[in-house]
């Protein structure tokens, strides 16, 4: 698994998109006016973010029992959802229970009024069983909440709140197309496949501590279609089976999901994937750690402790709720203005401290330059001094600043109750909110900090400089700087040294200095290849650049991959562990490969989630040193035959997984066995291979 290659440039792009989509970053654009609707990427991201905030608020209102506020939010922003009387009936039924739960005479009268004026009329045409459910829930008027033996004990259960909240989140997410950022969905998918693979193969997971904490087992209830479930599914069985096995739902669940998405397989896939719950705070910290390590954000901004976050939440909640909770439909300015208010003080403090931080760091780095260089040689010291000066005078503010999810504190504020919102959501009192960080959220936040690396700024800056030089193709400078830092480094990492000398050789060839290029090859590349026979082939391919210098760049090791390998190796040498997210991606991408080898088919959703790009590390290098990526125009076709052969699997596969010779399995036969026997694809293929591909024979054997 450690040898699994990952395109870290693609992951960087996904991570940056995730952080921006979730408003986790501060940069120069944060103070600029909100984008106009014509600016599609940012405008779409901003709209999706606002929609997710709205869904979060509605979910929280229902979970806290404030159904009236949830109804007000829905009526104000997505009234079309309530055209479905099934949804309206369930909301009014829960509102009836919550009013009774309060226990006062006035609330009891309000509950009876709700039943008479809203619940009963809605029960008449919601769905066939609705009126019976209405009569049943009226028993709550005479049976006490604490009576566990009552016929309405289930109606009194607070679990009903959370089920309804999850259902509304599923419905609103699909209705508003407010899906989670792509990286969040990709990680859910990879982790779920990893768990299934480890369970089915009986192997232990090296990242179980992270995966169990990040991805919860529970899911939001699915959004069900209005059409009759007794209708024959008008969908391709290939799509049904692909969806069912990708998101671990039953065949009927996949059919319902496809029907709800009007036959759009990829929309149905996203709807189902977003039902899986993630530990948001834990994910944020893994992302923050990765961003610091990769130089995406300023490493000086440490993640706040749970206590600091709680304090920040209390301070931020002093913002007028009129501007926080009530203006999501007023256009682009609402959330952006709130965000600006929420972080204004933090930005001012950060800006005032940044210069001081750089000055102090410069002083400490110069005073400890000999320690950083690990050598007493005068030339090495001069080289390190130049490096430190260049580091300290570089513009650190070009990196983004991390602010975290503190601005979500407005969503942990109690929304106006039905007693204080008779005039709608626009008339809440300024001091009426009870702002606090929930104990469960604070606990999760603290636990997610336990294994997050807090990097030493000085060492990390050295590593990031080496990475930047390598990314620019300045191989000779990298070798010089690393030797000044640690003369023994390349003796212990000869492959990295070979790759850097490859880049230096190709740079000289492209510059027309063939004599110097051949000298580099004879002095460095030749001896390295002689001592490691595995390097002989890349050496020969590198020397071909002398014959055709125009193709030199295309033969080079991708600079981004080289830069990351160098960063990891130097970081470990300096005691800087790579972020946990890198380990998660390596392991889950490895198990993704292994899982679909067992399934003997291609993952139909890997292009949608950019998993194919995360695996692209050997693409030819373009002029800027970035591996070439495919275009966004993806084809999602499915093959109608599956070739089963030992050549399709790597060493370590079970002999029972394939036949001794190549065999072509008909896709229709595979699907028939999967459907009738409810088997995973791999098991269906193995049974067909044992019965000459005859699906009827397989089914008869099972039922005989």
UniProtKB/TrEMBL annotation:
<dbReference type="InterPro" id="IPR050618">
    <property type="entry name" value="Ubq-SigPath_Reg"/>
</dbReference>
<protein>
    <recommendedName>
        <fullName>CTLH domain-containing protein</fullName>
    </recommendedName>
</protein>
<feature type="domain" description="CTLH">
    <location>
        <begin position="51"/>
        <end position="107"/>
    </location>
</feature>
<feature type="region of interest" description="Disordered">
    <location>
        <begin position="620"/>
        <end position="657"/>
    </location>
</feature>
<dbReference type="InterPro" id="IPR024964">
    <property type="entry name" value="CTLH/CRA"/>
</dbReference>
<feature type="region of interest" description="Disordered">
    <location>
        <begin position="413"/>
        <end position="438"/>
    </location>
</feature>
<feature type="compositionally biased region" description="Polar residues">
    <location>
        <begin position="634"/>
        <end position="647"/>
    </location>
</feature>
<feature type="domain" description="CTLH">
    <location>
        <begin position="459"/>
        <end position="516"/>
    </location>
</feature>
<feature type="compositionally biased region" description="Polar residues">
    <location>
        <begin position="375"/>
        <end position="385"/>
    </location>
</feature>
<feature type="region of interest" description="Disordered">
    <location>
        <begin position="25"/>
        <end position="48"/>
    </location>
</feature>
<feature type="compositionally biased region" description="Polar residues">
    <location>
        <begin position="415"/>
        <end position="425"/>
    </location>
</feature>
<feature type="compositionally biased region" description="Low complexity">
    <location>
        <begin position="39"/>
        <end position="48"/>
    </location>
</feature>
<feature type="region of interest" description="Disordered">
    <location>
        <begin position="369"/>
        <end position="390"/>
    </location>
</feature>
<dbReference type="Pfam" id="PF10607">
    <property type="entry name" value="CTLH"/>
</dbReference>
<dbReference type="InterPro" id="IPR006595">
    <property type="entry name" value="CTLH_C"/>
</dbReference>
């Amino acid at each position: 698994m450690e040898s699994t290659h990952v395109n870290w440039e693609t992951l960087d792009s996904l991570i940056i998109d995730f952080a921006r989509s979730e408003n986790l970053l501060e940069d120069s654009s944060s103070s600029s006016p909100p984008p106009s609707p014509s600016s599609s990427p940012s405008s779409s991201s901003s709209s999706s973010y606002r929609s997710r905030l709205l869904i979060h608020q509605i979910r929280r209102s229902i979970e806290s029992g404030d159904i009236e506020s949830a109804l007000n939010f829905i009526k104000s922003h997505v009234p079309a959802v309530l055209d479905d009387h099934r949804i309206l009936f369930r909301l009014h039924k829960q509102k009836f229970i919550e009013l009774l739960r309060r226990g006062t005479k006035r609330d009891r009268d309000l509950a009876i009024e709700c039943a008479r004026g809203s619940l009963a009329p809605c029960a008449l045409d919601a769905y066939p069983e609705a009126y019976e459910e209405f009569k049943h829930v009226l028993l709550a008027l005479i049976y006490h909440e604490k009576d566990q033996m009552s016929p309405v004990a289930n109606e009194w259960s607070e679990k009903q709140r959370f089920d309804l909240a999850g259902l509304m989140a599923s419905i609103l997410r699909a209705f508003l197309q407010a899906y989670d950022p792509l990286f969040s969905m990709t990680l859910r998918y990879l982790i779920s496949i990893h768990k299934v693979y480890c369970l089915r193969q009986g192997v232990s997971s090296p990242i179980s501590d992270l995966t169990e904490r990040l991805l919860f087992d529970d899911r939001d209830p699915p959004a069900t279609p209005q059409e009759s479930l007794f209708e024959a599914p008008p969908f391709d069985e290939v799509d049904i089976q692909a969806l069912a096995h990708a998101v671990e739902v039953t065949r009927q669940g996949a059919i319902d999901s496809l029907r709800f998405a009007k036959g759009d397989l990829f929309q149905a896939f996203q709807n189902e994937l977003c039902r899986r719950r993630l530990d948001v705070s834990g994910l944020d910290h893994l992302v923050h750690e990765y961003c610091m390590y990769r130089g995406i954000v300023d490493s000086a901004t440490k993640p706040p402790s749970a206590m600091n976050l709680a304090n920040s939440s209390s301070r931020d909640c002093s913002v007028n709720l009129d501007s926080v909770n009530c203006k999501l439909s007023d256009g682009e300015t609402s959330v952006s203005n709130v965000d600006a208010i929420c972080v204004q003080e933090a930005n001012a403090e950060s800006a005032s401290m940044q210069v001081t931080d750089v000055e102090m760091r410069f002083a400490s780095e110069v005073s400890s330059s000999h320690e950083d260089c690990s050598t007493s040689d005068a030339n090495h010291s001069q080289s390190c001094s130049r490096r430190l000066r260049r580091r300290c005078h570089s513009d650190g503010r070009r990196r983004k600043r991390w602010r975290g999810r503190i601005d979500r504190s407005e969503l942990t504020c109690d929304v106006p109750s039905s007693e204080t919102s008779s005039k709608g959501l626009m008339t809440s009192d300024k001091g009426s909110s009870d702002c606090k960080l929930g104990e469960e959220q604070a606990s999760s936040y603290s636990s997610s900090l336990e294994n997050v690396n807090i990097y030493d700024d000085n060492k990390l800056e050295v590593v990031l400089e080496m990475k930047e030089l390598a990314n620019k193709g300045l191989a000779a400078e990298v070798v010089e700087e690393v030797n000044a830092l640690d003369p023994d480094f390349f003796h212990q990492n000869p492959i990295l040294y070979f790759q850097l000398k490859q880049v230096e050789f190709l740079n000289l060839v492209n510059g027309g200095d063939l004599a110097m290029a051949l000298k580099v090859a004879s002095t460095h590349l030749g001896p390295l290849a002689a001592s490691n026979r595995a390097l002989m082939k890349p050496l020969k391919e590198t020397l071909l650049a002398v014959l055709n210098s125009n193709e030199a760049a295309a033969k080079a090791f991708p600079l981004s991959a080289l830069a990351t390998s160098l960063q990891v190796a130097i970081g470990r040498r300096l005691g800087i562990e790579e972020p946990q997210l890198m380990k998660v991606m390596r392991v889950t991408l490895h198990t993704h490969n292994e899982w679909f080898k067992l399934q003997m088919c291609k993952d139909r959703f890997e292009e949608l989630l950019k998993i194919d790009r995360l695996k692209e590390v050997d693409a030819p290098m373009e002029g800027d040193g970035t591996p070439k990526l495919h275009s966004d125009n993806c084809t999602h076709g499915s093959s109608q035959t599956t070739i089963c052969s030992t050549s399709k699997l790597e060493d370590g596969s079970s002999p029972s997984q394939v036949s001794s010779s190549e065999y072509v399995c008909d896709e229709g036969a595979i699907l028939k066995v999967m459907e009738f026997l409810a088997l995973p694809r791999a098991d269906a293929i193995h049974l067909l291979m044992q019965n000459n591909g005859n699906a009827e024979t397989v089914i008869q054997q099972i039922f005989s």
